[in-house]
Design a protein that fits this description.
It contains 10 helices and 19 strands. It is of the alpha/beta class. Strand 18 (316-321) and strand 19 (326-329) form a beta hairpin. Helix 8 packs across helix 9 (248-256). This is Carbamoyl phosphate synthase small chain.
Protein backbone atom coordinates (compact mmCIF):
# COMPACT_ATOMS: atom_id res chain seq x y z
CA UNK A 1 0.00 0.00 0.00
CA UNK A 2 1.24 3.48 -0.84
CA UNK A 3 1.99 5.88 1.99
CA UNK A 4 2.96 9.54 2.06
CA UNK A 5 5.02 11.67 4.40
CA UNK A 6 3.86 15.29 4.18
CA UNK A 7 6.09 17.91 5.81
CA UNK A 8 4.93 21.28 7.09
CA UNK A 9 7.12 23.03 4.47
CA UNK A 10 5.05 21.37 1.71
CA UNK A 11 7.53 18.64 0.77
CA UNK A 12 5.92 15.24 0.12
CA UNK A 13 7.66 11.84 0.09
CA UNK A 14 5.96 8.76 -1.37
CA UNK A 15 6.75 5.27 -0.12
CA UNK A 16 5.18 2.08 1.17
CA UNK A 17 3.06 1.76 4.30
CA UNK A 18 4.59 -0.29 7.13
CA UNK A 19 3.06 -1.07 10.49
CA UNK A 20 -0.40 0.26 11.32
CA UNK A 21 -2.46 1.73 8.49
CA UNK A 22 -3.56 4.87 10.27
CA UNK A 23 -2.91 8.57 9.85
CA UNK A 24 -0.69 10.43 12.30
CA UNK A 25 0.68 13.95 12.76
CA UNK A 26 3.91 14.31 14.71
CA UNK A 27 7.23 16.11 15.02
CA UNK A 28 9.68 14.54 12.57
CA UNK A 29 13.19 13.90 13.95
CA UNK A 30 16.13 11.83 12.72
CA UNK A 31 18.42 9.35 14.47
CA UNK A 32 21.88 8.50 13.10
CA UNK A 33 22.40 5.19 14.96
CA UNK A 34 23.39 2.16 12.87
CA UNK A 35 21.96 -0.31 15.42
CA UNK A 36 19.56 -0.17 18.36
CA UNK A 37 16.30 0.46 16.50
CA UNK A 38 14.33 -1.45 19.16
CA UNK A 39 15.88 0.67 21.90
CA UNK A 40 14.95 3.78 19.88
CA UNK A 41 11.37 2.58 19.46
CA UNK A 42 11.00 1.85 23.18
CA UNK A 43 12.74 5.02 24.44
CA UNK A 44 10.06 7.20 26.14
CA UNK A 45 11.99 10.32 25.10
CA UNK A 46 10.51 9.89 21.60
CA UNK A 47 6.91 10.37 22.77
CA UNK A 48 5.24 12.93 20.53
CA UNK A 49 7.73 12.38 17.70
CA UNK A 50 8.09 10.27 14.56
CA UNK A 51 11.61 8.93 14.00
CA UNK A 52 13.58 8.84 10.75
CA UNK A 53 16.43 6.28 10.82
CA UNK A 54 19.29 7.55 8.65
CA UNK A 55 20.96 4.12 8.40
CA UNK A 56 19.53 2.67 5.15
CA UNK A 57 18.65 -0.90 6.27
CA UNK A 58 16.57 -1.39 9.41
CA UNK A 59 15.25 -4.62 10.96
CA UNK A 60 17.96 -7.03 9.81
CA UNK A 61 18.50 -8.55 13.28
CA UNK A 62 14.81 -8.65 14.20
CA UNK A 63 13.27 -7.96 17.60
CA UNK A 64 14.63 -9.23 20.92
CA UNK A 65 12.25 -8.20 23.69
CA UNK A 66 14.96 -8.29 26.38
CA UNK A 67 16.49 -5.23 24.70
CA UNK A 68 13.43 -3.01 25.19
CA UNK A 69 14.07 0.20 27.15
CA UNK A 70 10.45 0.36 28.40
CA UNK A 71 7.32 -1.76 28.35
CA UNK A 72 6.03 -0.37 25.05
CA UNK A 73 7.11 1.70 22.03
CA UNK A 74 6.56 5.47 22.16
CA UNK A 75 7.19 7.16 18.77
CA UNK A 76 4.12 8.22 16.79
CA UNK A 77 5.65 6.90 13.58
CA UNK A 78 8.70 5.17 12.08
CA UNK A 79 10.38 6.18 8.81
CA UNK A 80 13.04 4.09 7.04
CA UNK A 81 14.76 3.70 3.67
CA UNK A 82 14.52 -0.10 3.53
CA UNK A 83 12.96 -2.57 5.94
CA UNK A 84 14.67 -5.97 6.12
CA UNK A 85 12.33 -8.66 4.83
CA UNK A 86 13.88 -11.55 6.81
CA UNK A 87 15.61 -10.95 10.16
CA UNK A 88 18.76 -12.99 10.81
CA UNK A 89 19.79 -13.28 14.45
CA UNK A 90 19.78 -16.20 16.90
CA UNK A 91 18.16 -13.91 19.50
CA UNK A 92 15.37 -12.69 17.22
CA UNK A 93 11.83 -13.33 18.49
CA UNK A 94 9.84 -11.27 15.98
CA UNK A 95 10.12 -9.09 12.90
CA UNK A 96 10.03 -5.32 13.10
CA UNK A 97 7.06 -5.33 10.70
CA UNK A 98 4.96 -7.37 13.14
CA UNK A 99 6.21 -5.32 16.09
CA UNK A 100 5.01 -2.08 14.48
CA UNK A 101 1.62 -3.56 13.55
CA UNK A 102 0.99 -5.10 16.96
CA UNK A 103 1.76 -1.79 18.65
CA UNK A 104 -0.36 0.27 16.24
CA UNK A 105 2.58 2.36 15.02
CA UNK A 106 2.27 3.64 11.44
CA UNK A 107 5.32 4.04 9.30
CA UNK A 108 6.69 4.50 5.83
CA UNK A 109 9.49 2.72 3.96
CA UNK A 110 11.06 3.19 0.56
CA UNK A 111 11.66 6.94 0.71
CA UNK A 112 14.95 8.81 0.31
CA UNK A 113 15.79 9.25 3.99
CA UNK A 114 19.03 11.04 3.09
CA UNK A 115 17.11 13.75 1.24
CA UNK A 116 14.62 13.95 4.11
CA UNK A 117 17.41 14.30 6.69
CA UNK A 118 19.06 17.06 4.66
CA UNK A 119 15.78 19.00 4.73
CA UNK A 120 15.54 18.61 8.51
CA UNK A 121 19.17 19.67 8.96
CA UNK A 122 18.85 22.73 6.73
CA UNK A 123 15.39 23.91 7.77
CA UNK A 124 15.24 22.41 11.26
CA UNK A 125 12.95 19.86 12.87
CA UNK A 126 9.39 20.22 11.59
CA UNK A 127 5.99 18.59 11.88
CA UNK A 128 4.71 16.08 9.39
CA UNK A 129 1.93 13.63 8.59
CA UNK A 130 2.12 9.96 7.64
CA UNK A 131 -0.97 8.97 5.63
CA UNK A 132 -2.13 6.27 3.21
CA UNK A 133 -4.76 8.58 1.72
CA UNK A 134 -3.76 9.09 -1.93
CA UNK A 135 -6.34 11.88 -2.23
CA UNK A 136 -4.78 14.05 0.47
CA UNK A 137 -5.43 17.80 0.32
CA UNK A 138 -2.35 19.91 1.13
CA UNK A 139 -4.42 23.03 1.75
CA UNK A 140 -6.27 21.19 4.54
CA UNK A 141 -3.27 19.35 5.96
CA UNK A 142 -0.62 22.11 6.21
CA UNK A 143 -2.57 24.24 8.77
CA UNK A 144 -3.02 21.12 10.94
CA UNK A 145 0.71 20.42 10.81
CA UNK A 146 1.58 23.94 11.92
CA UNK A 147 -0.82 23.65 14.90
CA UNK A 148 0.65 20.40 16.27
CA UNK A 149 2.69 20.46 19.50
CA UNK A 150 3.99 17.56 21.57
CA UNK A 151 2.46 19.11 24.72
CA UNK A 152 3.02 17.75 28.22
CA UNK A 153 4.35 14.29 27.43
CA UNK A 154 6.22 13.54 30.67
CA UNK A 155 2.94 12.77 32.45
CA UNK A 156 2.13 10.37 29.60
CA UNK A 157 5.31 8.29 29.84
CA UNK A 158 6.03 8.15 33.60
CA UNK A 159 5.17 5.12 35.75
CA UNK A 160 1.76 5.12 37.44
CA UNK A 161 3.05 4.21 40.91
CA UNK A 162 6.39 3.75 42.60
CA UNK A 163 8.15 0.39 42.56
CA UNK A 164 11.39 -1.04 43.94
CA UNK A 165 14.28 -2.92 42.30
CA UNK A 166 15.91 -4.75 45.25
CA UNK A 167 19.56 -4.37 46.13
CA UNK A 168 21.74 -4.57 49.24
CA UNK A 169 23.73 -1.38 48.64
CA UNK A 170 22.93 2.31 48.43
CA UNK A 171 19.29 3.40 48.30
CA UNK A 172 18.66 5.44 45.16
CA UNK A 173 15.47 7.35 44.35
CA UNK A 174 14.97 7.42 40.57
CA UNK A 175 12.61 10.11 39.30
CA UNK A 176 10.90 8.66 36.24
CA UNK A 177 10.38 11.40 33.65
CA UNK A 178 10.45 8.73 30.93
CA UNK A 179 13.36 6.68 32.24
CA UNK A 180 15.09 4.12 30.07
CA UNK A 181 15.34 0.77 31.84
CA UNK A 182 19.10 0.73 31.54
CA UNK A 183 19.44 3.63 34.00
CA UNK A 184 17.94 1.51 36.78
CA UNK A 185 19.88 -1.55 35.53
CA UNK A 186 23.17 0.39 35.67
CA UNK A 187 22.48 1.29 39.30
CA UNK A 188 21.11 -2.14 40.18
CA UNK A 189 24.17 -4.00 38.89
CA UNK A 190 26.27 -1.85 41.23
CA UNK A 191 24.22 -3.20 44.13
CA UNK A 192 21.87 -0.25 44.54
CA UNK A 193 18.31 -0.61 45.76
CA UNK A 194 16.43 1.54 43.25
CA UNK A 195 13.02 3.00 44.07
CA UNK A 196 11.39 4.40 40.93
CA UNK A 197 9.01 7.31 41.54
CA UNK A 198 6.34 8.82 39.24
CA UNK A 199 7.30 12.20 37.76
CA UNK A 200 4.84 14.19 39.88
CA UNK A 201 6.04 12.79 43.23
CA UNK A 202 6.77 15.54 45.77
CA UNK A 203 10.27 16.23 47.02
CA UNK A 204 8.99 15.73 50.57
CA UNK A 205 7.98 12.13 49.84
CA UNK A 206 11.33 11.32 48.27
CA UNK A 207 13.41 12.92 51.02
CA UNK A 208 11.29 11.26 53.72
CA UNK A 209 12.55 7.88 52.44
CA UNK A 210 16.14 8.96 53.27
CA UNK A 211 17.76 7.94 49.98
CA UNK A 212 21.55 7.87 49.67
CA UNK A 213 21.23 9.46 46.25
CA UNK A 214 18.70 10.79 43.77
CA UNK A 215 18.69 10.13 40.01
CA UNK A 216 16.78 12.42 37.63
CA UNK A 217 16.01 10.55 34.42
CA UNK A 218 15.72 11.31 30.74
CA UNK A 219 12.32 12.08 29.21
CA UNK A 220 10.46 13.70 26.32
CA UNK A 221 9.28 17.18 25.39
CA UNK A 222 10.05 20.79 26.23
CA UNK A 223 11.55 20.98 29.76
CA UNK A 224 9.78 24.30 30.40
CA UNK A 225 6.43 22.46 30.24
CA UNK A 226 7.36 20.68 33.51
CA UNK A 227 6.50 23.62 35.76
CA UNK A 228 5.44 21.72 38.90
CA UNK A 229 8.30 19.19 38.53
CA UNK A 230 10.86 22.01 38.38
CA UNK A 231 9.58 23.37 41.71
CA UNK A 232 10.08 19.96 43.35
CA UNK A 233 13.58 19.61 41.86
CA UNK A 234 14.54 22.96 43.43
CA UNK A 235 13.65 21.43 46.82
CA UNK A 236 15.84 18.41 46.04
CA UNK A 237 18.66 20.78 45.05
CA UNK A 238 18.33 22.51 48.43
CA UNK A 239 18.82 19.19 50.24
CA UNK A 240 22.26 17.66 50.84
CA UNK A 241 21.45 14.41 49.03
CA UNK A 242 23.81 13.58 46.12
CA UNK A 243 22.07 13.99 42.75
CA UNK A 244 22.94 12.65 39.29
CA UNK A 245 20.77 13.76 36.34
CA UNK A 246 20.61 12.63 32.72
CA UNK A 247 19.20 14.39 29.63
CA UNK A 248 15.80 15.92 30.56
CA UNK A 249 16.80 15.67 34.23
CA UNK A 250 19.90 17.74 33.41
CA UNK A 251 17.75 20.43 31.78
CA UNK A 252 15.21 20.47 34.63
CA UNK A 253 17.93 20.93 37.25
CA UNK A 254 19.31 23.88 35.26
CA UNK A 255 15.84 25.45 35.05
CA UNK A 256 15.27 24.84 38.77
CA UNK A 257 18.44 26.81 39.59
CA UNK A 258 17.75 29.84 37.40
CA UNK A 259 19.26 28.97 34.01
CA UNK A 260 17.30 28.81 30.76
CA UNK A 261 16.90 26.26 27.95
CA UNK A 262 16.14 26.64 24.26
CA UNK A 263 15.14 24.40 21.38
CA UNK A 264 17.90 23.28 19.03
CA UNK A 265 17.57 23.45 15.25
CA UNK A 266 17.45 19.67 14.80
CA UNK A 267 18.82 18.26 18.06
CA UNK A 268 21.24 15.44 18.82
CA UNK A 269 19.92 11.91 18.25
CA UNK A 270 22.31 9.04 17.68
CA UNK A 271 25.08 6.91 19.17
CA UNK A 272 28.10 8.75 17.79
CA UNK A 273 28.27 12.20 19.43
CA UNK A 274 31.70 13.26 20.79
CA UNK A 275 31.70 15.03 24.17
CA UNK A 276 34.71 16.53 25.95
CA UNK A 277 35.30 16.32 29.69
CA UNK A 278 36.51 19.84 30.51
CA UNK A 279 38.35 18.70 33.63
CA UNK A 280 40.47 15.97 32.03
CA UNK A 281 40.40 17.01 28.37
CA UNK A 282 39.34 13.50 27.37
CA UNK A 283 36.79 13.02 24.59
CA UNK A 284 34.12 10.31 24.83
CA UNK A 285 31.73 9.02 22.18
CA UNK A 286 28.20 9.25 23.54
CA UNK A 287 24.62 8.25 22.83
CA UNK A 288 22.20 11.18 22.75
CA UNK A 289 18.53 11.93 22.25
CA UNK A 290 17.45 15.52 22.85
CA UNK A 291 16.03 18.54 21.07
CA UNK A 292 16.61 21.12 23.83
CA UNK A 293 19.80 22.39 25.43
CA UNK A 294 20.83 24.49 28.44
CA UNK A 295 21.58 28.09 27.43
CA UNK A 296 25.07 28.77 28.76
CA UNK A 297 24.61 32.55 28.59
CA UNK A 298 22.03 32.26 31.38
CA UNK A 299 24.13 30.08 33.68
CA UNK A 300 25.23 31.66 37.00
CA UNK A 301 28.83 30.53 37.55
CA UNK A 302 28.29 30.80 41.30
CA UNK A 303 25.70 27.99 40.99
CA UNK A 304 27.09 25.71 38.29
CA UNK A 305 29.99 25.41 35.90
CA UNK A 306 30.28 23.54 32.57
CA UNK A 307 31.65 20.00 32.91
CA UNK A 308 31.23 18.67 29.34
CA UNK A 309 30.80 20.27 25.91
CA UNK A 310 29.82 18.82 22.54
CA UNK A 311 32.90 18.67 20.32
CA UNK A 312 30.87 19.24 17.14
CA UNK A 313 28.78 22.31 17.98
CA UNK A 314 30.17 23.38 21.39
CA UNK A 315 26.77 23.12 23.11
CA UNK A 316 26.66 22.23 26.79
CA UNK A 317 26.77 18.52 27.65
CA UNK A 318 27.04 18.59 31.42
CA UNK A 319 27.16 20.73 34.56
CA UNK A 320 28.81 20.47 37.95
CA UNK A 321 27.07 22.36 40.74
CA UNK A 322 29.24 24.54 42.99
CA UNK A 323 29.28 23.49 46.65
CA UNK A 324 26.83 20.66 45.98
CA UNK A 325 27.09 16.91 45.42
CA UNK A 326 25.29 17.34 42.11
CA UNK A 327 26.39 16.72 38.55
CA UNK A 328 24.28 16.44 35.41
CA UNK A 329 24.88 15.32 31.83
CA UNK A 330 22.99 15.88 28.59
CA UNK A 331 24.10 12.57 27.03
CA UNK A 332 23.30 8.97 28.01
CA UNK A 333 26.02 7.17 30.02
CA UNK A 334 23.66 4.15 30.27
CA UNK A 335 23.65 3.90 26.45
CA UNK A 336 22.17 0.67 25.12
CA UNK A 337 22.64 0.13 22.22
CA UNK A 338 25.51 2.55 22.06
CA UNK A 339 29.01 3.35 23.32
CA UNK A 340 29.89 2.56 26.94
CA UNK A 341 32.61 5.24 27.10
CA UNK A 342 30.91 7.29 29.82
CA UNK A 343 29.57 4.41 31.93
CA UNK A 344 32.13 5.45 34.56
CA UNK A 345 29.82 8.32 35.56
CA UNK A 346 27.67 5.82 37.47
CA UNK A 347 30.78 4.88 39.48
CA UNK A 348 31.33 8.58 40.15
CA UNK A 349 27.78 8.76 41.50
CA UNK A 350 28.50 5.73 43.70
CA UNK A 351 31.54 7.52 45.16
CA UNK A 352 29.44 10.62 45.85
CA UNK A 353 26.96 8.51 47.82
CA UNK A 354 29.78 6.79 49.69
CA UNK A 355 31.21 10.17 50.77
CA UNK A 356 27.71 11.24 51.79
CA UNK A 357 27.56 8.29 54.21
CA UNK A 358 31.03 8.91 55.70
Amino acid sequence: MKAFLILSDGNVFEGTSIGAEREVISEIVFNTSMTGYLEVLTDPSYAGQAVVMTYPLIGNYGICYADEESGRPWPDGFIVRELSRVPSNFRSEDSIQNFLKENNIPGIAGIDTRALTKILREKGTMNGMITTNENYNLDEILPKLKEYTTGKVVEKVTCEEKYVLPGDGFKVALMDFGAKRNIARSLNKRGCEVTVYPALTTAEEILAANPDGIMLSNGPGDPKECVSIIKEIKKLYDSDVPIFAICLGHQLMALATGADTHKMKYGHRGANHPVKDLQTGKVYISSQNHGYVVDMDTLDDKIARPAFINVNDKTNEGLEYVGKNIFTVQFHPEACAGPKDSDYLFDRFMNMMKKGRD
